[in-house]
Amino acid sequence: MKKVGNHNSISRKLLLGVTLMLAISFTSFAQDAAPAAATEAPAAAQGADPVKGKELFNSNCAACHKLDAKATGPALRGVAGRHDKAWLYKWIHNSSALIKSGDAAAVKIYEEYNKSVMTAFPQLSEGDIDNIIAYTSEEKAAAPAAVPGQAAAGTSNGDDSGVSNNIILGALALVMLMLVVMLFLVNSVLTKVAKANGIQVAPKTPTTPIWKAFAKNQFLVLVTAIFLLLASAYFVYGFLMQVGVDQNYEPIQPIHYSHKIHAGDNEINCKYCHSAARVSKNAGIPSLNVCMNCHKNISEVAETTATPEYSKAFYDEQIQKLYTAVGWDKATQSYTGKTQPVKWVRIHNLPDFVYFNHSQHVTVAGIECQTCHGPVETYEIQKQFAPLTMGWCINCHRKTEVKMEGNDYYTKIHEELSKKYGVDKLTAAQMGGLECGKCHY
Fold this sequence. Notes:
Elements: H1 7-27, H2 50-61, H3 85-93, H4 95-100, H5 104-112, H6 126-136, H7 162-196, H8 210-216, H9 218-241, H10 259-265, H11 270-273, H12 288-295, H13 312-326, E1 328-329, E2 334-335, H14 358-364, H15 369-373, H16 390-399, H17 411-421, H18 429-433, H19 436-439
Antiparallel strand pairs: 1-2
């Protein structure tokens, strides 16, 4: 019998190669955990508690003061080195009295900061003030030095497992290649064995191609043509019905505004910024002066505000864009008079022939903003939540009950229509909410 080769040696080589590649890929998962170096907080000066001082600072001082930048009042880091403690007690307890006494330092601060009178805090004890001073006396934390090839703290690195994944994918690709090669080798060996033993391989019987068989069957051709026409009509109709529907439209604005931070984390009421929604047809774009009600004293966000997608530096840059737009100089705490208009991108846009009144829905009907605009308190970037189509509005009118409590205008109408329809609560549709003239001019 003819010798066809030693295939055991080939299998051993293949098995050895696969084992070696898998061993390399699994060892890449092992990572040494570097112990984090614990940093010690600076000791409180003279027994004062800087932790309590931070709480007192945030609740009493942060509205007008920052640690390292001027705001309504001066920066307070290191204030104990600029004034003695007895003077600070008098100033914090009653700054007006200290100014009237003619104290030179008090008068200088009063004149320098546009004669803004500091709020008196007689409720703070000297111990509380000592704690605040201890907090303001802490050294400013230095930013950690960037290590090449190391991700910054608090940010996610998409390449953390990239090396090991690449090795695993490479190993799998190599295994698949080996299997293909082995199939060719097996086929070659079987062919040689068949020839050596005089075995004839039966030739393939020619068959009719499936497309020719299909073309000859007229019934199948007719059914397929009808199906394709109906399917095409369905998809064309669906496409045309989506023209002008901008659901989930999420444009990038010139100034990044996070509803998640403002309406979500800080729980600012929607109608504080969009006050026109209560009394007007349009909700309106809030004036930048509304933003400055808070951001006059908030020139940067807290460290905890940063997310993997948006850093603290990014949010601080957006606040600076606001300052540039309104002409606010945070160094002098004054307006420069040089303003720049903000070209906001409109998100919700109804056709001109559609009438919609915000005050009628928000004030009269008492509908929450989230009903139409979605959970805006969770949106980092505002988007169009609802399709705002005619069918969507009609369905809302059909299922929404009219708010009758405290509304004498609907009392008589409600009594008559409730008898007519045999219901206790009327929907907007039963009150005429489906009439064409209600929404169309």
